[in-house]
């Protein structure tokens, strides 16, 4: 009789251990399944599909901080291209400069007003002068906010009788603002100044 009791106790312990192992395995399996499901949902939510020419193109959404250097440099490049690309057309100048002023604060507007007051844009139109700019490099410090930048570029000024290459170095700061159609990167250039703008080559036409 005692032998039967011991066998029952042993069998009960075995069943209990087996049950605990099965329950623990189920819990681990459920946790793993939950983790993988969450990971899958996160991956799916980070994907964006863009419809272009009837085709769905996949894009990946990333944290803004991962894209700050790229977006900031493009913002700076776009501002300088709009502000310094000039043609002998009053409407074109007004449109380009107007778009650039959405990307910067009063410091850019002040520079525009100074140039306008000096008759710079009038001389561009009357002299049939065109101006283009190529951005050579942009230094950007994102370790401190607002972000400091220095932009190096080359201006190409085409006159009726000559072509002038001029170096351009500007600097300023970037702060975050809300994105909009006029400011898609969500940055605003502040305290913008020109620290170098001199002729480096003059060629007769």
Q: How is this structure best described in words?
A:
A hairpin with a 3-residue loop joins strand 4 and strand 5 (162-176). The strands form two sheets. The protein has a four-stranded antiparallel β-sheet, covered by helices on one side. The chain folds into two domains: 2-49; 64-204, VirB8 protein (Nuclear Transport Factor 2, Chain: A, Roll). The model has no long low-confidence stretch (mean pLDDT 85). It contains five helices and six strands, in the order H-E-E-H-H-H-H-E-E-E-E. It has helices at residues 2-45, 64-84, 90-101, 106-117, 120-126; strands at residues 47-52, 55-60, 130-141, 147-158, 162-176, 187-204.
Q: In CATH, what is the homologous superfamily of the largest domain?
A: VirB8 protein
Helix/strand-derived class?
A: alpha+beta
Report the order of strands and helices.
Answer: HEEHHHHEEEE
The CATH architecture of the largest domain comes to Roll
Instruction: Report the uncertain regions.
Output: none
Would you give the CATH topology of the largest domain? Nuclear Transport Factor 2, Chain: A
Q: How would you sum up the major sheet?
A: 4 strands, antiparallel
Count of strand segments: 6
Strand order across the largest sheet: 3-4-5-6
Cα separation of the termini: 119 Å
- The number of helical runs is 5
CATH class of the largest domain: Alpha Beta
- What proportion strand? 25-35%
Helix amount, in percent?
40-55%
What value does the average pLDDT take? 85
User: So what's the overall shape?
Assistant: rod-shaped
In angstroms, what is the radius of gyration?
32 Å
Q: Could you say how many structural domains there are in total?
A: 2
């Amino acid at each position: 009789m005692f032998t039967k009791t011991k066998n029952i106790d042993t069998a009960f312990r075995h069943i209990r251990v087996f049950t605990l192992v099965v329950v623990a395995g189920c819990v681990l399996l459920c946790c793993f399944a939950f983790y993988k499901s969450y990971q899958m949902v996160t991956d799916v939510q980070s994907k964006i599909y863009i419809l272009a020419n009837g085709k769905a193109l996949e894009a990946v959404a990333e944290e803004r901080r991962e894209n700050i250097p790229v977006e900031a440099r493009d913002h700076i490049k776009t501002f300088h291209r709009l502000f310094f690309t000039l043609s002998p057309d009053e409407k074109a100048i007004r449109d380009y400069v107007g778009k650039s002023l959405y990307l910067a604060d009063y410091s850019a507007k002040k520079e525009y007003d100074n140039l306008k007051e000096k008759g710079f844009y009038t001389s561009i139109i009357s002299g049939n002068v065109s101006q283009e700019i190529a951005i050579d490099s942009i230094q950007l410090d994102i370790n401190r906010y607002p972000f400091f930048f220095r932009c190096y570029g080359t201006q190409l000024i085409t006159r009726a009788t000559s072509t002038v290459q001029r170096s351009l170095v500007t600097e300023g700061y970037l702060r975050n603002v809300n994105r909009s159609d006029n400011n898609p990167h969500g940055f605003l250039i502040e305290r913008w100044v020109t620290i170098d703008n001199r002729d480096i080559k003059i060629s007769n036409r």
